[in-house]
Amino acid sequence: MTVLIQNTKVTANGNGVATSFSFSPLVIFKDTDIVVTTLSAAGVTTTLTKGTGATNYSVSVTTYPGTGSITYPAAGGTALATGASITIKRVMPLEQATDLENQGGYLAETQEQQYDKFVMIDLQQQDDLDRAIKLPVSETGTDTKTRIGTSANRASKYLGFDASGNIAVIAAAANTATVSAFMVTLLDDLDAAAAAVTL
After folding, report:
1. Cα–Cα distance for residue pair 42/73, rounded to 1 Å
2. Do 55 and 77 form a contact (C-beta atoms < 8 A)?
3. Does residue 198 carry a pLDDT above 60?
4. Spatial distance between the Cα atoms of 36 and 21, rounded to a whole number of angstroms
């Protein structure tokens, strides 16, 4: 096999009727090599679990490695609504499980399949990197983990930038702000109508 397709995920839209969703051209080696999420019309993301129930999905692949489809819901339940979408992402385990013995016989296909898995891992890692916050290529990288500190240090604070433009945790608590006396009169109003009266 070769890996010529750069895709790592497939997204389909719901229509209130369809329950079968193809993840072609993604090739997987076992049914646990995918992660399935739905995005509701309201923007809520839900990670689904493989199974046989009304909130689960099932996987259908004729021969592994190969491509196929999922059924959601797996049984019963309500079809994915119009305005919602489903994303099927290939997520390979970060491992190398092929053991080639010294001076032992093995098939070239065994070695090629491991190469294919490595490329698929590279593609999924690149997908994660492409969605991450990154500095321009012209700038020298900095240790972001060190700059933003521990979770205790970040709690109830903003992620921002210091005077040099580096990522930093802003010390002000997220629920505090300095406003003018006039803004205070607007912020203490219960609704828009009361604020309009204040104006």
Report:
1. 19
2. yes
3. no
4. 11
